[in-house]
Amino acid sequence: AVTVAGADQVLFTSRLSLRTHPWLADHVVLDQTLVPATALVEMAIRAGDELGSTVLDDLSVLGPLVLPRKGGVHVQVSVGAPDASGRRELSVYSRPENADVPWTLNARGHLSFRGPDAPFTLAQWPPAGAEEVPLDDAYDKLAVQGYVYGPVYRGLEHVWRLGDDVYADVRLPTGSRTDVGGFGLHPALLETALAASCLAGYGSSPEGTVWISTDWKDVRLHATGADRLRVRLAPDADGALNVQLADRAGRPVASVSSVDCRAIAVGEVSNALARNRDSLFHVDWTPFPVAPAAGAGRWVALGAAEPGARRYADVASLARAVGAGESVEAAVFRAETRDTGDRAADVHDLAREALAVVQDWLAEERLAGTRLVVRTRGGVTTAGDGDVTDLGAAAVWGLLRSAQSENPGRIVLVDIDDEEASARVLPAVLTSGEPQSAVRGGQVFVPRLGRVPEAPAGAATGSWDPRGT
User: Fold this and answer.
1) What does the radius of gyration of the chain's CA atoms come to, in whole angstroms?
2) Among 3.30.420.40, 3.40.50.11460, 3.40.309.10, 3.10.20.30, what is the CATH number of 284-451?
């Protein structure tokens, strides 16, 4: 815990990931790994213990906390100053690690200090007259509803119904990837207890409707270290559950006066997951509309000839013409790899040639107001147009991207195919102001940053060649 300077506030920090907390990987809802609400309850109670609070008055879960398959999520629990009655405001925030995005408020509530609650006991077990619910296909039924529980959450041993009340025996399975050490009440054990209600009420909700616990009231922890529980879940008139948890002797372990649930939408999970990818981007080539050019009279060819353009043999001759008063907006230099049979040498030769042209261009003050347009063919790939076909041109793109960053507005890169429609649109590309573009079949594409989509669970992300690269 850290006391915040200049404020009567305490901050607790943590990091969650599937590597450091492997038991969280067993809680899959709507095909994503969700931190259960019971874990947020445990965090809140733990913070209260540090500050002398005895009751979690309320906790409202505002949105799902999704864990990525790789990396982790930073979590902060902020507890405010006590009011006159000793009540403190509490907030739980999260943010993907290595992502420069705002913190998400996942839950908020209040802690307080109050005396003992009215005692309860679950000594008579199971209750007289309770009807046992078969568990043969319990987890298959839960999976149909959208809850895919791994081994840590498969601790339902018995479930009974008595009227509207649900009773259950639950445990933390032997050999789980976690134990009760370090927890007041293990979140997986509490989540398993609540799952008894979903199982007992199976068939009462439409298939695929997933409910998560969102509103908790009057949560008290009476004892710690439990790995088995007797559970009583009693719904009120509004459908919220009153929860009583006891040890194997029926003595109180925890109680919750009310747990309310709501249906969660797939969009909520996907939106939360998107934040975990906010720092992972790739290049998307997106269509870019260009206005028809007024004419080609103010751009010229440098080196190789270009249809409809005046040609200059080298940078020096163009600089002399501009110095003599000729108005030139842009000069097009065609960079294409020659085929001499030695591919590596051909690539190196084109890269050296392009570098020499650019160095001469940038050193010539008379050309400071004229843009150098480097035209390639097959040096980059856009969506759906296959692989790079000119390795030398690809090397030129890599080299000149750096030169562009050091000399903004002086150099333009254009990769254009052999289509006649593409040639016609080239003048419009030169006046578009875009520093990099590709033209395919007369359609202009420009590079933009796009978020990397999440790979499907279990999907192969590549292959390993034992012979090397």
Assistant:
1) 33
2) 3.40.50.11460
Query: Beta-carbon neighbour count of residue 381 at 10 Å?
Result: 17
What residues does 171 pair with on adjacent strands?
228
Q: Using DSSP, state whether 360 is helix, strand or coil.
A: helix
CA dihedral 284, 285, 291, 293 (to 10 degrees): 130
CA dihedral 332, 395, 406, 444 (to 10 degrees): 50
**Cis previous bond, 307, omega within 30:** no
Peptide bond into 102 cis (omega under 30): no
Q: What is the pLDDT of residues 273-294, one digit of tens each?
A: 555 555 567 788 888 887 776 5
Q: Give the pair of three-digit tokens for residue 132.
A: 């046992």
| Nearest of 40, 31, 81, 89 to residue 63 by alpha carbon | 40
Indicate the residue type of 98.
N
Q: Taking the chain, what is the end-to-end CA distance rounded to the nearest angstrom?
A: 48
pLDDT tens per residue across span 306-352:
877 889 999 999 999 999 998 998 999 999 999 999 999 999 999 99
Residue 365 has what DSSP assignment?
G
pTM, rounded to two decimals: 0.60
- Do residues 29 and 148 make contact, with C-beta atoms less than 8 angstroms apart? yes
* Fold match flag (2-275 vs 284-451): no
Query: What CA–CA distances, in Å, run from 55 to 8, 21, 215, 218, 242?
Result: 20, 26, 15, 6, 16
Residues near 330 by beta carbon (within 8 Å), at least 6 away in sequence = 298, 299, 300, 370, 371, 372, 373, 412, 430
**Tokens 């005396």, located at residue:** 115
At 2, which amino acid appears? Answer: V
Strands 10-17, 311-312: parallel, antiparallel or unpaired by DSSP?
A: unpaired
**Paired tokens of 171:** 């445990």
Q: 2-275: CATH homologous superfamily?
A: Polyketide synthase dehydratase (3.10.129.110)
**3-state SS class at 29:** strand
